[in-house]
Amino acid sequence: MIFQAPRGTYDRMPSQQLLWRRINKVLEEISESFGYERIDTPVIEDAKLFSRGVGDVTDVMEKETYTFPDRGGDLLTLRPEGTAPVCRAYIEHGMHNLPQPVRLYYFCPVFRYERPQSGRYRQHHQFGIEVLGSSEPEVDVEVIQLAWNILQRLDISDIKIKINTMGDSDSRGLYVEKLQEYLKSQIGDIPGPIKERIHSNPLRVLDSKDPKMFEINNNAPRSIDYINLESSEHWKTVLNNLDSLSIPYEVDHKLVRGFDYYSRTVFEIVPSVEKSQNTLIGGGRYDGLIEMLGGKPTPGIGFGMGLERVASTVADSSYCLESNKPSKVLVAHIGDAAKEKAMLLSSTIRNTGISAVLAPTRGIKSQLRYGASISATHAIIIGDEELQNNEVVLKNFAEHSQEIIPESNLIEILSSFD
């Protein structure tokens, strides 16, 4: 039997690592430039954390979670999203005692039992940010700006921000009630599987891609028509500040997001040319979630980014990866004495932060072919003559050139290549 990665998972190969490292570096740099700090949470959590936070009748909880009893009888869930665990950590570690708001970012694998397709996996990786402890609309704008800056830095173009408001919890409740009434009046034209959502989660009906739902959803009530004065002022301030920062957006009255905890501002960043499963970043405000999880009332807002989709988009763009590719040096050797010297020299080079690979014991031509195969930028060649003269041969693979240099100058010369 030949084993393969489970369906919906994949191996990230060495050739893909540089792309992912550079994406992660951009995410870290931009997040920290906005004053965010990293947090890491466990892969497994109490199952009730997600049923209470995400909602029992969402697709994630009904169909997609990996939930199981452990040997002690506790019901655990593999993390399907990042916000609820961060909120749990905020409560557990008394972070409400810190200066507010608390700004956090994270990288984590998440698990959902979905039908595998392009850009969607059963284990995928998420980057996210959360701001806890501020209800100011300016924070909403900061979060959207951070998301926008990331995609701009990654040179991802032809994208747009879609944004909507759900209003506060009271406004959202009123809107859901009016939406349900409208959908029930259209029940005869709604396909069977979608009818079930009218009672359990009517907001998800607006997400339907079924062509029969296009006109029904277009004529559905809009959340903005049911928000109270305070929510309306919050919404106007968000849009005005986005305008001031020249951040483009498109108001989408059908945008509601998938989890029960969202309120007020919700947004997505998607390619300008609509495709299925195309959301790059999605998020919004969740002012009631901390209290829902047992903490003190604490407003919050954040977003999640699917790293596989972003990596795929970046790989297809003009974003240049080779220009900053670090040097990798092959240390080749001819003879036993030279091999011992090559081992010592490899260690010295690595201690300076430069990648060095000791060549396998083969003929010199075979060693150099090996260097080219592992994408070495340079080769250092040591033989008996070089040992005697305290010199090395430095070969540049790209330029097909080589020169003899004093060993004492080697580290300085190699350091100048990065």
Task: Tell me what you see in this structure.
There is one protein chain. The protein is α+β, with helices and mostly antiparallel strands and 418 residues long. The chain folds into 2 domains: 12-42 and 78-167 and 226-314, BirA Bifunctional Protein, domain 2, CATH 3.30.930; 326-414, Rossmann fold, CATH 3.40.50.800. The protein contains 15 helices and 16 strands. The strands form 3 sheets. It has an 8-stranded mixed sheet, with helices on both faces. A 5-stranded mixed sheet has the order 13-12-14-15-16. It is elongated, with a radius of gyration of 27 Å. The relative contact order is 0.11. The model has no long low-confidence stretch (mean pLDDT 88).
User: Ends: how far apart?
Assistant: 45 Å
Q: Quick one: biggest sheet? A: 8 strands, mixed
Compute the number of strand runs. 16
Number of domains: 2
CATH topology of the largest domain: BirA Bifunctional Protein, domain 2
Proportion of residues in extended strands: 15-25%
Mean pLDDT: 88
The first-level CATH class of the largest domain is given as Alpha Beta
The rough form would be described as elongated
Would you identify the regions where 5 or more consecutive residues have pLDDT less than 50?
A: none
Under CATH, the homologous superfamily of the largest domain reads Bira Bifunctional Protein, Domain 2
Structural class label: alpha+beta
What characteristics describe this protein?
single chain; 418 residues; alpha+beta; BirA Bifunctional Protein, domain 2; Rossmann fold; 2 domains; eight-stranded mixed β-sheet; five-stranded mixed β-sheet; 16 strands; 38% helix
